[in-house]
Amino acid sequence: MNISLNCWNEYDQLKSVLVCSPSTLDVPDAQTATDVQWEKPVSQKKAQEHFHNMVDAMKEHGIHVIDYSKHLSRQDAHLSHQLINRVFTRDLACVFGNTLVPGEPGTSMRRPEYIQSHFLFLDWFGPERFKVTANNNGNALEFGDVMVLNKDAVFLNTGLRSSYEAVERMKDQIFQAGFSEIGVIDLPRRPDTLHMDMNANVAAADVLIAKSYMRYLPVRILTETHDRYLMMEEFLFRHGFEVEWTNDIKHTVADINFLNLDPETLLISTKANKKIIRNHPKLKKKKLIEVEVDELEKGGGGIRCMTLPLERQS
């Protein structure tokens, strides 16, 4: 896999991204959806169509899109096709600078896809760039809870699916990758706060959009030598970000869960409330590429959840 792992932020031009096509299984009714913690029933035929909408939009933007399911062995593929959450690749790992760090699932239902993808990553990138056992002894860490803000700072959540114990175990890897500060927030443990990227997202090099309740939450600041607290807005301001609070807007998954394709362009769902993005003066001229992915969003995640950046041009 000829990819130079390189991600120092959320907004530089995206060059390579990992995805996974949806499962072949339908989620046939509301009760089944509730039992597997999805929002609504899903037709996988329609989900496949919406997946290709997203992939085609990225390819048309010149992005190398890798569907990891196509690289699995026949035995692994037989299981993988039946894993309904496998489309949410963001959680599997995260590129910090030039290092790919493995995640650890917060629910046993997702463990097989982590194991399968991690052995692929090990084969593709080697043990120096992907330390497959680095989080073996840690608790849950799903990377929908992580934002790489810039070359100095990482912002992450230890909520429903990620633990502070896992952060403690992996923080040295982040510092060794070249970052100097980690901000840790602890979101309420509810379905709508499952991950950080359902509540906040980087929309530009100096603007982060966030749900308004987050302004009341302190952030624990970790460096190699210090440990202290700041409020969220102060932490982000120190690293060059303004915060666009969404105030009393009633949110759907689509609103904040977008993907930066380059500094001028966002890939968003057709169901996203564009007023949220356009409200900040620095975002008014952003190019918005809209794709229909609502059948995929019924699984409880959006476009950011379904894309794992491997390489951005810094």
From TrEMBL:
UniProt-recorded name of the protein: Arginine deiminase family protein
Source species: Pontibacillus chungwhensis
PANTHER family found in the cross-reference section: ARGININE DEIMINASE
Gene3D superfamilies to which the protein is assigned, alphabetical: L-arginine/glycine Amidinotransferase, Chain A
